[in-house]
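Anyone up for a design puzzle?
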């Protein structure tokens, strides 16, 4: 069998290391030897002796259902083998979390992660009902976190001298030690569009990095 489809650009080769790696810009490969966790429905292929179990309510951080704006559920993948994960052909990225780190991320962007990571669900400070009821997942510990993003993300540094204002539908996540609040602004453009003239953004202050997607949420993602 010949053709561009069967070129090395698309052909899956032998695994080079256990754990998580980027297969291509749209998928993540995970060589499982024990347990890992992933977004339910994100597995697109697997081989080996693997079992998939829905994660519901339970005791302990890794047995909780992730509650975000969409109530994103998880599944545990156990055994020995390898699996590939993807979501709506979005771009995939890996974040390495070290001891002492925390990374806050919109649960809709979580694809898969190591079982060595712990997470908690928290309301984004300053963004309650008025801000759309933002619930984010905060990851800590030591391990790798696989994320998706519609398009190529922007990673924007934040300093005490330069706070950042982001659309609440465009923010993917941010690093620890950044403080959040709602910021209301009035712009001439919003008045021309027939709105109230009030635009609400999420303000992030401190020192760290913010990850922003180059588009707002689609109606299917809300």
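Challenge accepted. My sequence:
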């Amino acid at each position: 069998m010949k053709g561009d489809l069967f070129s090395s650009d698309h052909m899956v080769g032998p695994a080079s290391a256990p754990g998580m790696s980027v297969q291509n810009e749209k998928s993540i490969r995970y060589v499982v030897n024990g347990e890992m966790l992933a977004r339910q429905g994100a597995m697109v292929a697997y081989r080996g002796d693997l079992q998939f179990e829905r994660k519901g309510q339970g005791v302990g951080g890794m047995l909780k259902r992730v509650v975000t704006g969409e109530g994103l559920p998880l599944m545990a993948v156990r055994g020995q083998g390898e699996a590939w994960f993807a979501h709506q052909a979005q771009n995939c990225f890996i974040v390495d979390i070290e001891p002492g780190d925390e990374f806050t991320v919109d649960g809709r962007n979580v694809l898969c992660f190591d079982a060595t990571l712990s997470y908690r669900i928290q309301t984004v400070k300053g963004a309650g009902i008025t801000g759309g009821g933002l619930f984010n997942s905060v990851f800590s510990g030591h391990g790798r976190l696989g994320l998706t993003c519609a398009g190529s993300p922007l990673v924007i540094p934040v300093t005490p001298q330069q706070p950042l204002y982001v659309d609440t539908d465009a923010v993917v996540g941010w690093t620890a030690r950044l403080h959040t609040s709602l910021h209301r602004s009035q712009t001439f453009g919003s008045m021309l569009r027939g709105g109230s003239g009030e635009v609400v953004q999420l303000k992030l202050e401190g020192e760290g990095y913010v990850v922003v997607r180059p588009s707002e949420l689609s109606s299917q993602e809300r």
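A detail worth pointing out: The chain has a mean pLDDT of 81.
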